[in-house]
């Protein structure tokens, strides 16, 4: 199943996270931030799309998100968002930076609360959306400073893009779906957060997004993220903790696309997966963890039994 008209692209994204847990002091979490940066290798305009999800609940939570670009004349900061008195934030948008070769650019994020819960956490997923310079999508190149209590880290995320333009036929775009998959070496559970941004304008628009996998019996399964009609223009649904089981050697991934019945005959969108967790299935009788079941596992069991460890 695939999109045969138009184009399909896969673009890497970067997820930047922070997590502060102070162990339940009475005064909550004082204001603190984490600064994530990468070093530019070109000079020019960089436009990135961002999605920020954070929880600083419950009492007097404050959230702050700033983009910045360093240069010969110093740092230029661009306020992205500031939110107060909401238990969680789930926002997205686009920010444009003027970056300079050899200088850092990135984001500062964090906040505070006055809650006995004494924890704040958040994640920012960033992907290039345009401009005349490249975006560093290798998460290992991003460094962080700040958040002296708790920890901050960068993690991999990935964006799947599809774009169909049929050249203005009268019948619109028939249902067109693209599968983005990768084979896994062992059975296990695939879990992630997800965010969609799509434009299927304008008439009789539908969309379908799902995690897909093949189980141990060779049967395809779908974990629906979003499926159905969606208004006249664009949508941006998201969710947390979507999960699907996949068997060893089988593919797991994303199905994305949709349709319309419009003379415009264009659909396009992207799905970003972040906070990706892969939990391989453990074979409890593979006692020596060599990936095989044989005499050596029996020998290991007898040794454990003799030692009084059944």
Descriptive report:
It is built from one helix and 18 strands. The protein has 310 residues and is mainly beta. It folds into two domains: 14-156, Jelly Rolls, CATH 2.60.120; 166-280, Jelly Rolls (Sandwich). Strands 1, 3, 6, 8, 10, 12, 15, 16 and 18 form a nine-stranded antiparallel β-sheet that branches. Strands 5-4-7-2-9 form a five-stranded antiparallel β-sheet, with no helix packed on it. A hairpin with a 2-residue loop joins β4 (62-71) and β5 (74-84). The radius of gyration is 23 Å and the shape is globular. The mean pLDDT is 87.
* Largest sheet properties: 9 strands, antiparallel
Can you tell me the CATH topology of the largest domain? Answer: Jelly Rolls
CA-based shape: globular
Low-pLDDT regions: none
**What is the radius of gyration?**
23 Å
What's the arrangement of secondary structure elements?
Elements: E1 7-21, E2 29-39, E3 44-55, E4 62-71, E5 74-84, E6 88-99, E7 104-113, E8 119-131, E9 143-146, E10 151-165, E11 173-183, E12 188-199, E13 206-214, E14 220-229, E15 234-235, E16 238-246, E17 251-260, E18 266-280, H1 295-306
Keywords:
2 domains, 1 helix, mainly beta, Jelly Rolls, 4% helix
Condensed summary:
The protein is mostly beta strands and 310 residues long.
């Amino acid at each position: 199943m695939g999109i045969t008209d138009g184009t399909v692209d896969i673009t890497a994204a970067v997820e930047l996270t922070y997590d502060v847990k102070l162990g339940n002091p009475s005064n909550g979490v004082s204001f603190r931030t984490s600064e994530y940066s990468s070093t530019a290798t070109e000079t020019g305009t960089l436009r990135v799309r961002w999605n920020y999800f954070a929880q600083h609940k419950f009492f007097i939570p404050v959230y702050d998100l700033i983009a910045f670009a360093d240069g010969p004349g110093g740092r230029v900061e661009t306020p992205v968002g500031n939110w107060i008195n909401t238990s969680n934030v789930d926002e997205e948008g686009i920010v444009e930076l003027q970056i300079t070769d050899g200088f850092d650019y990135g984001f500062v994020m964090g906040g505070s609360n006055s809650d006995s819960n004494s924890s704040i956490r958040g994640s920012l997923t960033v992907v290039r959306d345009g401009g005349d310079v490249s975006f560093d999508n290798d998460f290992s190149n991003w460094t962080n400073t700040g958040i002296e209590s708790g920890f901050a880290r960068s993690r991999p995320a990935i964006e799947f893009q599809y774009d169909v333009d049929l050249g203005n036929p009268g019948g619109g775009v028939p249902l067109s779906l693209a599968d983005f998959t990768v084979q896994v070496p062992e059975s296990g559970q695939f879990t992630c957060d997800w965010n969609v941004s799509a434009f299927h304008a304008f008439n009789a628009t539908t969309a379908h997004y799902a995690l897909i996998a093949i189980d141990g019996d060779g049967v395809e399964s779908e974990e629906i993220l979003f499926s159905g009609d969606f208004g006249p223009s664009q949508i941006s649904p998201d969710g947390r903790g979507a999960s699907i089981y996949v068997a060893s050697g089988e593919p797991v991934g994303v199905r994305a696309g949709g349709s319309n019945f419009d003379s415009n005959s264009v659909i396009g969108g992207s799905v970003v997966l972040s906070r990706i967790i892969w939990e391989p299935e453990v074979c409890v009788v593979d006692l020596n963890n060599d990936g095989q079941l044989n005499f050596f596992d029996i020998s290991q069991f007898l040794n454990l039994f003799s030692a009084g460890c059944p």
